[in-house]
Each structure stands twice: as structure tokens, then as C-alpha cells.
Structures
1.
Amino acid sequence: MIVIKSGVTSPNGFLASGIKAGIKRSGRADLALLYSEVPAVAAAAFTTNRFQASPVKVSKDHIKAKKHQAIIVNSGNANCANGSIGDKDALKMTEFIGNALFLDKREVLVASTGIIGAYLPLAKIEKAIPELAGELSGDHGTSFAEAIMTTDTVKKELAVKVKLGKATVTIGGACKGVGMIYPLMKTERHATMLCFLTTDAAITKKMLAASLDEAIGDSFNMISVDGDMSTNDSCFIMANGLAKNREINSRGSDYGKFTESLKFVMSELSKKLVRDGEGATKFVEILVTGAKSESDAKAIARKISTSNLLKCAVCGEDPNWGRIVAAAGSSGVNFDPDKVDVYLGNLKALSDGASVKGLDKNRAHKLFTKRDVHIKVDLKSGSHEATAWTCDFSKEYVAINSEYST
Amino acid sequence: MIVIKSGVTSPNGFLASGIKAGIKRSGRADLALLYSEVPAVAAAAFTTNRFQASPVKVSKDHIKAKKHQAIIVNSGNANCANGSIGDKDALKMTEFIGNALFLDKREVLVASTGIIGAYLPLAKIEKAIPELAGELSGDHGTSFAEAIMTTDTVKKELAVKVKLGKATVTIGGACKGVGMIYPLMKTERHATMLCFLTTDAAITKKMLAASLDEAIGDSFNMISVDGDMSTNDSCFIMANGLAKNREINSRGSDYGKFTESLKFVMSELSKKLVRDGEGATKFVEILVTGAKSESDAKAIARKISTSNLLKCAVCGEDPNWGRIVAAAGSSGVNFDPDKVDVYLGNLKALSDGASVKGLDKNRAHKLFTKRDVHIKVDLKSGSHEATAWTCDFSKEYVAINSEYST
């Protein structure tokens, strides 16, 4: 596998565009389109939030179609909590693209991100469709990645190439979302991070969904910026087969290679989100090992990743590891506290549930002065592990989020 | 029921003290003692965190004794994650008081609050015992309330008097804890908020535990400052019978009156904690009504109370109610989003799951400029309700918690 630059338009046959439709008051780009020149199979994962945004409802219905060719995305408005008007508006967005690109509306998926509870300026979107479709290009992957941004400070895109038999398959992706980030997405059931993945691999719709499901559990579902789960989180992948590999239709070695590559792309994109987390100055990786089950390891790692106290300590470069202990213990997972070791980097702070006497506080502090902070919790009770990623909690986070809608 | 000033020493027969033992580097009072002149029955609730501080382990064992007369409390050190040394130290604290007051150590309870993972300066505590016992007085309830404080900016105490038959029963209390506040305590099983309650009511140990259990579910277990659950949360009550009421030994009308009064004291103390929450500038009350069950209502209210995004919005006086919707939907409770109404004060923002058109934004903003912000979520699916309390999330919170241990 090799990592290449660019993003959603790297695989063969994908075009994209991103333009200014006037949805955002800032005047920045806010409408984006992703298009496969040939029919593709698609899979998607959506937020498990009980309140689901209208575009999530429409995409959950449309994803049932056999083939898809386009995804329309707006930023600046979540089209959530808008009742039946919101549902109609989201459906209209797919119809606009269907009409412009000669597709059935069910072959078009839709996503929105922005403020909740404001009605969509549909007339502005309709007016912008000719430009949006007209700008479609293999060179506009970056415009796409920019137009989906909200409080993001940098665009997030990536692509990799992997050999499957004699064919070279490319997987590309772009994502956004640096606040209200604590996704828990389920494939075709239930993620405001948005992620758009493209590949020219030949793969069945069923295997594509399985691959996305595997990859999402170890990537987007393991990140937190603020512990707030969005109503709009969505992750889409389209596979158009233009790489001409032997179609992946079962869990063989090609499926394994494809899934590993997809997992890599999604993990890297997840980490980009966390590094750009609202107000973030630090990146924190939390590894939980020695768990009885993967779900135990994930639950503990995820709980630690949402500890406001730990995140403030990281911001202040204060190695107050007791906050890791308190968070782990409140995860709801049953484990023996007297067996637990906690490491800051490679420095052991807790050993068999007791604080290490004579802990080198200067060394501990130094580890917390780095841009990347590594924490390990070893339960010493099993062979399962999980990694979660978060950022620190800074005054800037509060500033960003106390001034959003007004 | 009438509310009186003072706190833990208001009921007959209770003495208290609070002194400086040198545990806190700040030099403030850090050691406290509560004493009943006659044997009392006691009940307690402790944190459900998997990591339990040593004083929690010791008190969970000692609470099994039939009678109790004293509680020793230190601030500045949580005595948590200190392994068997910590356990021995906590036990020693009860022995010190036992020796000083001619009690069996099992008649003494213990609580600690402060940094996790630092060993207790036991020699300093031992040295301070004569002064601590010597200062015991019916006038030192306030000294007690001050010595248990950590990042608290004000002491929190309260007492009420209630008529039971011909007798007048007094219930007093003091509590501390304005960070790492998201308690979920269980009676005699498993709260760093600390709460100490005293009463001169005559009541059996069993009924006292039942009453505490009822009251805690609607008070301390419904507050959040930062969503971080402590390893040390503990709530104690001692009842010494000196009011000479007919002993409460079943769920009759006296039990009901006593429990209502206890619930009032505990709710008021809970709200005092939230109002003094680290960095707090606002107080937020979240009422969830129309739920299918009380547990559903509590789960949703508690989830909303931990939304960092909502708490930042409140800080910025920004009525961004979409964040309430997102938080409610991520509570894990199954409800029909299309039925939900959301109110800011008495202003309806969401009606039947759809944002109210023409919402008076100035009025909404004005409601958020007040010191107390009221939010109501009506699920319109049942007859159960619950209230949770939280504070806003300010830059000051981050400042306080990025500089704690260093």
C-alpha cells in the first residue's frame, strides 16, 4: 500500500466540485458534489442519535438502491429538527442533482452539517445547482474537501493505492468535523463528522458495507473532541469498479487487503479531525490493553477520551494521571482495579492499582509538553486492546462554542 | 418544615471541628471531624466508580456496624490509587479517632478528597488528632464545612426542622465538591462530592438507608459539573434519636415527612454545589417531562446536563437549543423524536420535533442572559419526569483544571 496525495477524486472515474451557494453567512464555500462517471455500489454508516437530521433519513432510504452515482453536501446548516419541511428539503436536494445529472433521485445521497433547528435556504441551493454540476472535475477534490468544512481550520483528505491481483486499486477520502465529535455510527442503520470515501475497486455492495463496518469501528467510532454526539454524522463510500480487479464478493485475501487499506485511510482521516479539534493544541492517543474483550477495551478507551478533566490537564501539560484512573473506573466495565497499570508514554505511573513511589515528575511533565501525548492502560486481564484518539480541552474551545449561532 | 441557618451541628447532640493539618500546600484547613455525643445509626452511599478510593473501601466495611459516632474527613488528598498502603492509611485514620474518642474503629467512618495517586501524609494527620478532637463543638459546624473544601469557593451547609408527632426533628448537612462532579451513588454499595448529614430523628438503620436512597436519586445523582465521576464520592448520614420522636421503623407518614425533608436538604445542597461549579457563571435546570419511565427521564436529563456544547452556549448566553436536541437524542433512550417539544424558559423552540418558525430570538437570548437558565424537554409519551442541574462551561473551568496538580 502506498499513500498518495489528493483525495476523493484520486480513484478512476470520480469527479467533484465545491462552490459558494450563500448558505454560510461568512460567504465561504458551502455546497459540494461528488460524482462517479459510472454507476457505483455504495455503503454508508449513520449516527445512532435518536434525533436524526433530515438528510440522514433520506440517505438511509436511498442507500437501499442498488447503484449510486452522486452525493450532494451542504455546510452551514444541519437541516435537523425541521420536521417534515426538512425531510422534503433534503429529498429536493437529491432531486436537483438527479435532474442535473440524469440520475434517479434514489441514486443520489445527501448530507448536511451546520446549525441545528434552522430551515434550509433551499432556493439558494436550487439556484446554485448549475454551477455545482458545471464545476465537476477530477481536479476539484480539494474544492470538495473545502466546501464541506464548518469550524475546521484545515481541509482533510487522503488517498492510498493497493495492489489486488494485477490491478491497482485506489481509495480516496475527505472528511470534516472538529466539534460535536463523538461519533458512534452503524452501517446502514445508524455518524457532525462527515466522511466521503471513493474507490475504483470492483466489490459487491454487500462486501463494501461489511468492509466499511469493520473499518469504522476502529476509526471514526474511536474519536472524541467533546463527547457530544451529532444528529448528522454520516460516512459514505462509493465503489465504481473501474480498477478492473477481480470483483471482491467474499471475505478472501483481496477483501482483507482492501479492508486494511480502507481502515488505514479512515484512521488517518479520523486523526486529522482530532488534530484539528476545536481549540486543540494537543493530540492524545489512549491505548487500552489486556482487556477481556474488544468491547471492554473500546468502552474504557472511549470513556477516557471524553474526560474533561484529563483533557484540561493535557492542555495545561499537567501529568495528572489520577484523572485517567477515575475515567477508566467510570466506564461501566467490570475489571480488577488492583491489577491495573497506567503508563504516560513509557513511564509507569500506576502499578497493580497503586501509584508508583518516586515517580519522576519532571519526566512525566516533559511527556505532557509534547504535541502528541500517549497514554496506556493495561488491565492485565485478557488479550484484547483498543485505541481511542482525542485532543486537549482549551479555553479556545469554550470561546469557539459560546459564539456559534449568534 | 422550616429552613434554618447552620448545618451539621444543628440537630441535637452533634459536635464538629475543622482544623489545619498541613495536608494542603495552600495552608488552608484540611482536616474535619463530625461527632455524635450518643451512639447513632448511620447510612451511606458511595461512588459506583470501579476504582474506589481507600477511604471508600474502609467506610463501606465500617458502615456494616450497628452504631456509629464519628466521621473523619481530610481534603487535599483523595487517598486513591494507593494500593494496600492507602487502605491501611484510611483504616489508621479511623483508629486515631477511635483512640481519641473511646470508640471502636468500626464506629468511625472516613472520607477523603483531593488529588488521586499521591500517598497520604499520615504522620501529619496523626499529629493533628488531639487538636481535631479538642476543637469539637456545637459551634464549629462552619469550621467543618470549610475544612472539607477543595476548589470550592464558598462553604455549603443547610438545616431544616420538621414536626414528627409532637417532636421537632432537625436535619443538618454540609457538602463540598465543584469539580469531577457527576455522581452516581448507591446506598451501602457504592459519590469527589462529599456530603455529611446529621439528624436527631429516631429512626432505624434500615429506614435511614431507605430514606437516603430515595433522596439521593433525586438530588446528588442528578447533578453534573463536568461529567467526570469521582473515585471518592460519599454521602453519609447519622441519626442519633435525641429528638425523642416515635422511632421511624416503617414506611408510614413520619417516614414520608422525614424523607421529604431530607430530600429538600440534599437537593438544596446539590444545587449549591452546581452554583459553585468550577468556573461557573450560570445555573441550569433541565426538566424532562412526558417520559415513559422515571429512569428514561433521568437518563435524558443527565445526558443533557453533560453536553459540553450546551454548557458553552449557556456561558456565551447563546440560545443554541439544537444542542439540547442532539444531547437528548444521544442518551440511549428510545423515544419518538417527532413528538418532542423543547422550551427555553416558557418559550417553545421545538414543537413536535420541528423548530418553531418565527422563534423570537431576542426573547430566547434574554432568557439566556439570566443567572438561572431553565430548559424543558417534553417527550409527550408518558407521565414521568426528572430534573437535572448543571452549570455553564467557561474558560475559567479550563484554567482551574489545567493547573491543579502542578
Note: Residues 2-275 of chain A form a domain with the L-amino peptidase D-ALA esterase/amidase fold (CATH 3.60.70.12).
2.
Amino acid sequence: MKKIHNFSAGPCILPKEVMQKAAESVVEYNNSGLSIIEMSHRSKDFESIMDRSHAIVRELLNVPENYDVCFLQGGASLQFMMVPENLFPVGGKVGYVNTGVWGTKALKEAQLFGETIEVASSKDKNFSYIPKGYNIPKDIAYLHLTSNNTIYGTQFKSFPETTVPLVCDMSSDIMSKPVDVSKFDLIYAGAQKNIGPAGVVVVISKKGIFGKSGRTIPTMLDYRTHIDNGSMFNTPPCFSIYTSLLTMEWIKNLGGLSEMEKINEAKAKILYDEIDSNPLFTGPAAKEDRSLMNVTFVMKDPSLEPEFAKLAKERNLSGIGGHRSVGGFRASIYNAMPIESVQALVDAMRDFSKKYA
Amino acid sequence: MKKIHNFSAGPCILPKEVMQKAAESVVEYNNSGLSIIEMSHRSKDFESIMDRSHAIVRELLNVPENYDVCFLQGGASLQFMMVPENLFPVGGKVGYVNTGVWGTKALKEAQLFGETIEVASSKDKNFSYIPKGYNIPKDIAYLHLTSNNTIYGTQFKSFPETTVPLVCDMSSDIMSKPVDVSKFDLIYAGAQKNIGPAGVVVVISKKGIFGKSGRTIPTMLDYRTHIDNGSMFNTPPCFSIYTSLLTMEWIKNLGGLSEMEKINEAKAKILYDEIDSNPLFTGPAAKEDRSLMNVTFVMKDPSLEPEFAKLAKERNLSGIGGHRSVGGFRASIYNAMPIESVQALVDAMRDFSKKYA
């Protein structure tokens, strides 16, 4: 098997040992005589997987007692409409901080439900920073944030202090560091970055917040359906959930989220240091808002970019093309990315600058 | 690995070679150096998987040119509300044929959108038959059917002849036999019976039917979003889709749906013949409506059922407990169920009757 350094933005690299164990479970789960993908979701084996999956989310994120955890389908994109459907009161107002493509999409769905306020936006500078110092209206039912912005390489380092309920899309940095869950009414995250494979979403919500929007909510779009049924109202995405459990167990064995954060900081530092010292490269994201997950960088002379892309390909540095709206390059260095791969990228940048600088 | 005869109703048995190949892809997909679960959904490899998945649905079901195919998340349960959201005109009426728990759930969601008519129901006899000879109102926007009823072991052998558009939940018998797609406006099916693992839904829809309900439809709930984006509007459930492709390729290699139907008929015949000839057993479903997928049977003397369940367990006949609303037993004998496993169940029934009859 050839060695690929997988910098994809998501679906993305997962720990080797998780992929190995997940593969084994597709042949046979735990000496049951059955594959994980042919096993009834009502079997004792799968019910145990589901119970442990809920429990480890609680444990890793230190989720308070008065919060529920559930697993859903449909990606964060479906959450963009489930949040207002459940939490946007008829005739009320909600607020959004717009820090990129995903925040814009979330806002667009909320607009279908009533009056929305774009409380702050960094669109004026192509979302290259996280807005700060804005006023949060007191009369909004919630304020929606996107904690990490994969395309632009920005990340909230702290969250607004406010009495307004906070809702946060943490798809691309959940489980990468500790989070104070008690500051939020609702957190959602697509799994396919730091939690597991595509096909499952984690939702963490404060008890008692639902059932107040005055809307008629279809059964599958009502969070209470899934919470009340332990994420088993209907057939769950069994394989994605099991592989997410394995990934979260890997994080736990590594020492949990504080340890994970240290590793992620160390990896990001190597790369940002190179961007700042290498004469050919520069980073478009504001320094104080730089993401530990998605590192964006461009070349001062854009005409050299195809040459660097060629070198990257030769060295099996995969998935580093920047999003078309930012250009240049993006290295996604999620939890499972080994420091050796980050070093391989840095080495390529150095070798390239020796040749061209 | 011990030999289990997996009669689960879903998630359920898949072909051994599919599970083997799926497992290999979780280690490495097609010499790419990457696992199927860490690969970008925008990579050439995954785009090819997606293209081939759409194409093989079209090929196996002989889907006409004027129909679209797409893959969604959320299970058939989310379809229960997506169908009316997209096809139930504001101020109009829709009709449902109620043949069991799933049909009842589908009807319940439609009721949130306006006036519904329960055109026919077999609830009077615990859903043990498929209603026939009912009048279909001309003024309904669509008539919703459930082609196979897993809990009761009934199945439509033919569909109503009507000018009213038909919508059908085919979750538990799609890909088990040929279907005349042109008779339906929309077909949907959760994958986790005959198509693949849990976590993906197939939708086949006639072109031009959407955008007429007069409703404001959130982006993710609008079928056109997914059709227009080749099922890649957001990150799809990559592993479930790839494993579904493998399963459909297995069906194709076997000779397609006509061949599959012959095999399924042969398997079901062995089991129904035993139910009809064995003095201890009887089948609750009306003979003319018997499902080829889910075979329900009870004991004439229910006090013997725990004994038979014990024998079944000893012989590794797994997942044959009947649903609580029917009692007795249910053997789900989907496409991938080998005839040897059906024979093992029949042998157990015979041996049991020799002892107790």
C-alpha cells in the first residue's frame, strides 16, 4: 500500500488502527458470526455500540447532566434547517454570525422561517477573519456560530459572552480540543472530520429547549424524536456510528481532548511557522484567528502555484488544493493527521523555496 | 468464524463477497493508498463510485429516461415527510393505502400537510392481507403504497391500475424482482434490506413532478437539490453508497432482477411449503399476498413457541423472532439469504414436528 499524506478537508484521514478495526468488523463484529453491516440495530451487540457511543461523547466533551446527546443523519446541511424548525419561534427573530460558506448556508435556511439578523460578518475581507466586538441583539431567540471555517482556515478562539442562547456548528473542529458545552444551547457536528466516516451527525442539546417554537414539526425533524428514542427511532447508520465510536475511543486512549489539543497545536505550529518564514508563501487568514484544523496558504507569486502543486503530487501530499474561492493551498490537519505528514509538507515547501526563492 | 443463519429483518444479510470486498476497501480502496472512509467525496475515485451507483440502479430496474435517480440520507422515515413536502399541493388532497406500521407512519406525516384520505386499509385483520378492489378518488395528488410489509409478511403482487400518480415505499422488496418503474411517479427505498448497509436511501422520480406543491421547501428537503447535484449537494454517506454499489453489482452478475426473482421465489416456496404441510405451524398472512421477503409463521399451539425458539437458537438460526404485534416467527429471506439457510430453518421445523406433532 503506497503511503499517501491525506490532507483532504473531509471526509478525511482517520487513525490507521481505527480503519483496520472497522475493516475487521465488516467481516465479523466481535466474534458474533455477523458483519457489523448485516447486524440488526435492535441486537444486543448494536445496542451496546449505541450506548457506548452516546457515553463517550459525554465523557470526552464533559457534557453536563442537563444536556442530551443524539446521532442523526443528513449532515450538518440538514441541521441548517432543523435548528430553526425547532428553535426559531414563529414571529420571533434569530441571529447569525457569518464567517463563511457554511455560515451563509445556515443563514439562508433560517431565512425561510422568519426574520433573521446577520449580527456580524467577515464577508468584506473574503471571510479571512473572525468578527469581534459586535453587538448582539437581546431579542433574538438564538445566535448561530460556525466554530471553524474549513475553506478560509479561520477558527473561533473564544466564543461571545452573552445571555442569548448560542447554537454552534462545530463540524470541523469538534473533538479537536476541550469545549465548554455549558456555554451553548445546541451544538451540532457532521462526523466526517474528527469523529468518523461520513453519514452521521452528533447533536448535543440542553434539556428543555425544544417544543417552544410554535411550529408543527414532522417527526423525523423533531430533535425530541431522536433524543427520546436513544438515536434509534429508525434504523441508524450503523457502520458510521461504530467507526465513530472507535475513533472516539482512540482519542480517549490518547489522553482525551486536552492531550489532543496539545498535539494539534504542535502540528499547526510547524506548518504556520513555515508559512511565516518561507519567502515564497503567505497565509490569507488573520493570524489571531488561524485554524488548527485547516491551514490555508498561498504563494506570493501565484504563477508558481502549479509548480508547487506538481511537487506536492510527486511526494504523495494529497488533497492540498485550496478551495476555488480562496485559491492557493489548504492542508487539513485533523486529529488523525500524523506529525510526520505535516513535516513532509513543510519539507516540500522548504525544498521548493531553495529552488525558487 | 461461526456460521450464523441471519434472518434479521434489516439491517440484514448481505452477500459474503460484498462484505469481504467492502472490508478490503476500508483498509484500501482500489490501490489508491486511501481507505474508502478517508477519501474525499470530490475525488475522482469517489465520483466514479457515485456515477456507477446511479447507473446500476437505472440498469437493474430498467429506469426510463424521463426518471431521475438520487441517493439521500435519513431513511425511509424521512421520506414519509419529504414526499408530502414536495408533492402534496397546498389545499389539495392525497391518498394512502395503509398496509401496516410503515404505511401508518407515512400517513401520519402526510396528515401534517393537509387533507389525507385513507383509501384502503387492512387494519381490520391486523394487516394480514393487501386490500383490493377499492375506489381511488380522482382528485388526490398521489396515492401512496408500501409494496412489502416486513412485520406482517404481505406484499403487493400487482399495483392498482389508475391515472392517479403512484408513490411507493419499496424499502423491503426493491431489487428483489423486476418492477415497472413507469407506473410510478416516485419510488423510495431504504437501502438496508436488498441494496446495502443502513444509512442511504434510493429515490427514483419522474422528471417534472416537483416544484408544484406551492410550499417553501428547505434546501435539503427538496428532491431537486439532490437530483441537480448528482446526490452530492453535501457529503454523501460514502461507505454505504460504495457497499450498495457492490451489492447491486453482485445482483447484476447473478443475472439481474429476473434471475433474482426466480431465486427468491424458489427460496420462499421451500419455506411456505413447510409452513403449509407441517402440522405444528401456520402462516398468518393471506396466501395470495404472501411476501417473498419476510415469511411470517406462528405455532398452532403458541405454548410451544419458546421451545422452537430454543431449538432455532441452538442451530444458529438468528433473528427469527416475530414482531410483537404479530407474535410467532418471521424469517426474512432477502436476496443475499442462501437457500441452504432456508433449508436449515425448514429442517429445524421438521425435526421439531417429529418430536412434538
Note: Chain B touches chain A through 68 residues (CB under 8 Å).
